[in-house]
Amino acid sequence: MSAATFLAPFGDLTPEQRRVVTADMNGHRVIFGPPGSGKTLVLIHRAAHLAARHRVDPADYRVVVFTNVLKDYIRAGLDFLGIPIETVTTFDSLCQGLYTDHIGRRVPRDEENHRPDFDAIRRAVFRMLKQTPAVQGSLAFVVVDEGQDLTREAYAILGLVAKHVTVFADPKQRIFSGGASEAQMLAGLGLQRRSGAMLAAFRNSPDVGRLAAWFIADKGDRVEYLAQIRNISVPRERPLLYLAASMEDEAERLAAAIRQRQSLNQRVGIIVPRSNAVYGLSNALAARGVAVERAVPPSRRGDSTWTGVRFDTAAPKIATYHSAKGLTFDAVLLPRLTRGAFRHGEGKDDVVRLLFVGISRATQWVYLSTEEGNELSELDLLHKAAGEGQLVLQRHSDKGSTRTGPAPSGDDDEDDEEEISLF
Hints:
Elements: H1 3-6, H2 15-22, E1 29-32, H3 39-53, E2 61-65, H4 68-73, H5 75-81, E3 88-90, H6 91-102, E4 109-110, E5 115-116, H7 118-131, E6 139-144, H8 152-161, E7 162-169, H9 182-188, E8 196-197, H10 206-213, H11 219-228, E9 240-244, H12 247-263, E10 268-272, H13 275-286, E11 293-294, E12 317-320, E13 329-334, H14 348-359, E14 362-371, H15 380-387, E15 392-395, H16 413-420
Parallel strand pairs: 1-7, 1-8, 2-3, 2-6, 6-7, 9-14, 9-15, 10-12, 10-13, 11-12, 13-14
Antiparallel strand pairs: 4-5
């Protein structure tokens, strides 16, 4: 993905977005927006604006993102705006740096999982900051993406280490049970209320947005989300759910769907429940002549040769739901939606939120697949969507059915209003 594709110039931002970018640093700010409202885009512009406006050295500010994959995704935009890649970090990496700088060079280890003990590091850093006034406010500012998945303790740390914090968040996209609520975000930063909202969702087509809305549990939140979706100039296409006869059949249809999307020159993202599926499915696709690039953090496999993900190439990307946070693709494919596919300990509510996150990564089209008879129970919502005409349901047994592309949707405004009112 090029800088031009990802990064809209400041002059092309909406008035709401420009106001967030240029807001002063008199007090912390928490900004809420739905998927597609441009939170990550605005975050990068704000970091560049604050650094230039207040002449802040790169060593004195940080851009906190959810994953290293997202860091690769926004790299072109960082280069375009002159933000050094060294300023971009995950929250755990930020804490690890504070630990080694101010506590000790040897960080606590989680020996069972062969990685740093990030919980112990966070606790130690929080204690250090409370007890060391000289380190408090050592960063001029921090801008934070995906703030709904940071803990309450994380906000206390951010409030201590930075003079100013701007957080971008969407509680509907929370995927960790320990993620802070809106009230906890505000309390952690000493705020009484949210600082602003970017109300419009520009990314998702109406068809994608309506499907995603089935996975918002709260009716009020669902109505609000649907009201925020703007009609965008893309072909209207209904999402598709394929019920495969087997894993092999599912892989065949997935490969065909990818080829069809590539023929349309669309950027393709494949999102799966767990890391083992990233490797297994990418190998299955390669055996069918479809090459994909794995977008998973290096620590997942202990691969020291992993050098990041190239988002400036046309190769389809495959990632887990967690690694795909913040990413955007023209077409998103969600295979392997079978019983037991998600991580142990992830309950129904967790899976529903993950499916919302996965679906809302798409701008134009969503393809989902599972094995008939072994379907994820949460897919009942998709059958309801199909009953309302918002999803194409296709079975392996459908005679003569070889189409992997989506069915066109009508573009009548009155039909749109009627469909939205069903929620």
